[in-house]
Write a structure and sequence with these properties.
Blueprint: E1 2-4, E2 28-30, H1 32-41, E3 82-87, E4 95-100, E5 106-111, E6 115-120, E7 126-131, E8 137-142, E9 149-153, E10 157-161, E11 167-172, E12 178-183, E13 189-194, E14 198-203, E15 208-214, E16 220-225, E17 232-236, E18 241-245, E19 250-255, E20 262-267, E21 274-279, E22 284-288, E23 293-298, E24 305-310, E25 317-322, E26 327-331, E27 359-361, E28 365-367, E29 375-380, E30 387-391, E31 396-400, H2 407-410, H3 414-417, H4 419-425, H5 430-453, H6 531-540, H7 595-604
Parallel strand pairs: 23-27
Antiparallel strand pairs: 1-2, 3-31, 4-5, 5-6, 6-7, 8-9, 9-10, 10-11, 12-13, 13-14, 14-15, 16-17, 17-18, 18-19, 20-21, 21-22, 22-23, 24-25, 25-26, 26-28, 29-30, 30-31
């Protein structure tokens, strides 16, 4: 596929004697031009016809690269040997599951914090994040119709999601952690494997468990539903692999090939004739469902195998991830027997296929340092050109085939020979790697901040809470078609200057020779009301008592020349206290200097200049 390499530096000449670091170009893996060229140039290829010029190790042949769909029988050209990008969140957590969206535009990752993270499928940059579960997410599965996504967590809760990540259903599937989940071919049912040693078949529309598959003696760690048949496979901690009939809930057969805990069971999706299983005995096995026996023994790992993945187009390409972070790729029709190991014959070529030993298969390519810790999940892009891996080192990495002319440099990077050896050979710089890692983290943080801006709640606008009233702050719409008057400048026109008492919007009673208002009904000016009785009545009603006579409510200062209505006591004189900022003569007093300001003033005078 065509992609642009990252530029770690850039940005023009240094300024002011220093180096200006520019943001490097993000690597982009664009399959559009490759697919368009193949669709334009493809033609029926009959036996013996010319298939075009083959690729050569030169950069000029990059434009002639073909997608996996164009070379179904050439799986060797699809082996992902090149590291494309490492994506990590701002707040890092182990990545438990990685799944490509059905259209291949984005990669969905589920972490141990219960978060969904979406990464772009071409630029590998952050797109969005959401809190999907309260605990660690253990399994994800897309329906075959691409219309639904189901997720399961460590508490046994199953959630239904639409493609836009709208949660429409939550059910309690198990009371123990759910380790794996898979849809039926018709999407009407799905199966779950749990630590309670059982498998449950659920009706998708009703969200209820229809049947329970019991037979394992320990935790069920993996399950899968055949892509075209009514057949379920499960792997358990009891070292057994079982095949089930979902209609009768009967165990059809038990496979005893492994000698330790089963970690993954997966049907092959292209032909549907093979089953791959991995275990903690450092091996994986390929079973032929037509013979119900193992035909290939996958070797080469130095530690336990934690996960595996079939290629979506090449039925003979298998990728495995180990507990030590290594990533191996196998071609099942090429044994690749190393020197010193006895070669074995394929089961199909033996005289007695039922009793012949399984053929040993060694990796066609190894990346011993793909991750720092265990690889928990692998998933291929629907077009088969990118492999995504999620690991316990909290990083999601993308892998693809090398372009023509890059094989020599790719095989000497730090993912193949390690950081120390790569630094000794000059193919990797430790300081440059840290700088690039820092730049990548900064870019992901910027993308995450930009991606989360649209998800924030709109800010509450300050101003009036009464729309439609003109003249209030924060109001922009005119009332009755008349725009509000422009704001006035303090000290100009009728606007009082700062510090002056603003005029009342209406003249107060008794001012400017106006007649005082009539006494309120029920109040006798010669016999004022008893405030003690009023306070007692308000206290019985649960209301706060009024201020006693001679006192004003807190914060209330009477305006100047204010005449008190008859029947009310005169307002008291507010004393000039320290809280008002005035002294006894009515002059405004400056605030007291702080200790730091006093120390600076003393130091200017020459005091307290020596450190004790």
């Amino acid at each position: 596929m065509a992609y642009e390499p990252r530029g770690d530096h850039g940005g023009g000449p240094p300024q002011d004697g220093g180096y200006v670091r520019a943001r490097g170009r993000r690597p982009v893996t664009d399959y559009g031009s490759t697919m368009a060229r193949w669709m334009r140039d493809r033609q029926p290829r009959f036996r013996g016809s010319f298939a075009g010029e083959l690729e050569r190790p030169s950069a000029s042949y990059i434009v002639d690269m073909l997608p996996p769909l164009a070379r179904v029988t050439d799986a060797a050209d699809t082996v992902p040997t090149k590291h494309l990008h490492s994506s990590l969140n701002k707040i890092k957590h182990p990545v438990n599951v990685v799944r490509w969206t059905p259209d291949g535009r984005r990669l969905l990752t589920a972490s141990s914090s219960g978060e969904f993270t979406l990464w772009n499928g071409t630029g590998f940059n952050f797109e969005t994040i959401m809190q999907a579960h309260d605990v660690a997410i253990r399994a994800l599965a897309y329906s075959h119709s691409d219309d639904w996504l189901i997720s399961a967590d460590h508490d046994g809760i199953i959630k239904y999601w639409q493609p836009n990540f709208n949660n429409v259903q939550v059910i309690q599937g198990h009371h123990d952690p759910i380790r794996d989940i898979a849809f039926s071919p018709s999407d009407s049912k799905f199966v779950t494997a749990s630590d309670d040693s059982t498998l449950k078949i659920f009706d998708f529309a009703g969200g209820v468990a229809e049947s329970t598959l019991q037979g394992h003696g320990w935790d069920a760690k993996s399950c899968d539903w055949h892509p075209t048949k009514g057949l379920i496979v499960s792997g358990s901690k009891d070292h057994l692999v079982k095949l089930w009939d979902p209609r009768t809930q009967r165990c059809l057969t038990t496979l005893h090939g492994h000698k330790n805990n089963i970690t993954k069971t997966l049907f092959e999706r292209v032909m549907g004739n093979c089953l791959a299983t991995s275990a903690r005995d450092q091996t994986a096995r390929i079973f032929d469902l037509r013979m119900m026996r193992d035909i290939c023994l996958i070797k080469g790992h130095e530690k336990d195998i934690s996960t595996l993945a079939w290629h979506p187009i090449h039925s003979n390409l298998l990728s495995t991830g180990g507990n030590d972070g290594s990533l191996h790729h196998y071609l099942l029709d090429e044994p690749n027997t190393p020197a010193g190991q006895p070669s074995t014959t394929a089961v199909y070529e033996s005289s007695d296929p039922l009793s012949a030993p399984a053929q040993g298969i060694w990796p066609v390519h190894k990346l011993p340092f793909a991750h720092d810790f265990a690889i928990w999940s692998l998933d291929w892009h629907p077009l088969g050109h990118i492999l995504a891996s999620g690991s316990n080192d909290r990083i999601t990495r993308f892998w693809s085939r090398a372009r023509p002319g890059e094989a020599t440099d790719v095989f000497q990077d730090r993912y193949h020979i390690g950081e120390a050896a790569a630094e000794a050979q000059g193919t990797w710089d430790r300081r440059g790697g840290r700088r690039q890692r820092q730049e990548e983290e900064e870019m992901e943080a910027e993308d995450e901040m930009e991606g989360l801006v649209d998800q924030k709640m709109p800010l509450r606008q300050s101003g009036s809470a009464f729309p439609g009233l003109p003249g209030l702050p924060g109001l922009t719409l005119p009332a009755n078609g008349v725009p509000p008057p422009p704001p006035q400048i303090p000290g100009v026109g009728g606007m009082p200057a700062p510090g002056a008492v603003p005029p009342f919007p209406f003249p107060p009673p008794g001012a400017n020779g106006m007649a005082p208002p009539p006494p309120l009904p029920g109040l006798d000016p010669n016999n004022p009301a008893d405030f003690a009785k009023i306070a007692e009545m308000m206290q019985k009603a649960g209301l706060p008592p009024p201020p006693p006579p001679g006192m004003l409510p807190p914060g209330f200062i009477p305006p100047p020349n204010f005449a008190v209505p008859p029947g009310f006591p005169p307002p008291p004189q507010v004393p000039m206290s320290a809280d008002t900022g005035f002294d006894s003569n009515g002059r405004r007093r400056a605030p007291l200097p702080s200790q730091e300001e006093s120390l600076r003033m003393e130091q200017k005078r020459g005091h307290y200049t020596r450190v004790r």
